[in-house]
Design goal:
single chain; 360 residues; mainly alpha; Ribonucleotide Reductase, subunit A; two-stranded antiparallel sheet; 15 helices; binds fe (ii) ion
């Protein structure tokens, strides 16, 4: 259907069917190459909506006061175990954030074709940079030797194994992968599942839980607050990757075989085993007043939520959340009243610009 616009003595024919063809050519993979990066017309509305939510949650490390944390770090009331947890958190995440960001920029964002998917993945990668920056801010505020934190990542076997588990699903997936081949589509789907659901969705939660339990006891309030902001971001990242995974499967039903589904569940099983091993090896759970059994059950509970979210069989049917306070602190979905100060200000500013928020 062609519509003619007359401007002065010139005529501009605009063909709606061409726009519709462009829309139809938008795909998670193997779609029209998006050299011109045209978001219009939007096809993956969820990606744009999440981009908006993520942008409204913007924060910067320097927004957070660290005086109290510095006093506690230099004082005597903090135990050796508690210091270890903070160093572990900084050591693990400073490298893990980089691995996630690198995989987005050099694997997933390169391979997807729809521009709105690239848009939200760009924001996702940027948030990993903010998280990495926040760890640098913590280290420099407390005066921790950065080499010690880096060494942790290289030398502690249970961390090395967690690292190998994720990079195994990323290294052979760099550019120019032929995504018309079934095996390669499955490699990409596996990568998206591993990074979103196993790593960010499950393996981040052992340390998150430890640091938030210190925060709950008023220890290291600045660090705890940064981790809460980070967690709020992570819950959006898990959702970005879950949606991406679901749409990839929907558009490529050939990859969704019973065998492949079983393989994904096995991968999650491995992720859980590695996380529990890491908790037993490195995290003095009892020192923060938690029971090791309950803490491990929490990992089972979280992992099942991730599996169910991707339409996969759960591993522990009926498992209850043994640490409801932790879930409450972690599953922050009502952003508006929860955060104070600048973060809320960013949200207000963005709400003023976009008056039709409710329609999106
Ligand atoms: Fe992150
Ligand atoms: Fe993340």
């Amino acid at each position: 259907m062609e519509k003619i616009y007359k401007i002065g003595n010139r005529e501009f024919p605009l063909d709606q069917s061409k726009a519709e063809a462009a829309y139809a050519a938008k795909k998670v993979i193997n779609g029209r190459q998006s050299m011109t990066f045209n978001l219009l017309p939007l096809k993956y509305q969820w990606a744009y909506d999440l981009y908006r939510t993520m942008k409204a949650n913007h924060w910067e490390p320097e927004d957070i006061q660290m005086q109290k944390d510095v006093e506690q770090w230099r004082g005597h009331e903090i135990s050796q175990n508690e210091r270890w947890i903070i160093m572990m958190g900084i050591g693990y995440f400073s490298a893990a954030e980089g691995i996630v960001g690198d995989n987005i920029q050099h694997v997933v964002r390169e391979l997807v074709t729809a521009p709105e998917l690239k848009l939200v993945l760009g924001r996702h990668a940027h948030e990993e940079n903010i998280h990495a920056d926040s760890l640098l801010y913590m280290i420099s505020s407390l005066g921790i030797n950065p080499h010690e934190c880096e060494a942790m990542f290289e030398q502690i076997p249970t961390i090395v194994r967690k690292n190998e588990f994720v990079t195994r699903h990323s290294n052979n997936l760099r550019r120019d992968l032929d995504l018309t081949k079934l095996e390669n589509k499955q490699l990409l789907a596996k990568n998206i599942f591993v990074f979103g659901q196993c790593m960010e969705g499950t393996q981040f939660y052992g340390l998150f839980g430890m640091i938030l339990s210190l925060y709950r006891q008023n220890k290291f309030p600045g660090i705890g607050q940064m981790f809460r902001y980070t967690l709020r971001d992570e819950s959006n990242h898990i959702e970005v990757f879950r949606n991406l995974f679901m749409d990839l499967v929907e558009e490529n039903p050939d990859l969704w075989t019973a065998e492949f589904r079983e393989e994904l569940v096995q991968i999650m099983r491995e992720a859980i085993a590695l996380e529990k091993e890491f908790i037993r090896d490195c995290l003095p759970v009892n020192a923060v007043g938690l029971s090791a059994g309950e803490f491990e059950r929490y990992i089972d509970y979280i992992a099942d939520r991730r599996l169910a979210g991707c339409g996969l069989q759960v591993l522990n049917p009926g498992v209850q959340n043994p640490l409801p306070w932790l879930a409450e602190m972690m599953d922050v979905r009502k952003e508006q009243n929860f955060f104070e100060g600048k973060v809320t200000d960013y949200q207000k500013a963005s709400a003023l610009v976009h008056t039709s928020d409710d329609d999106l």
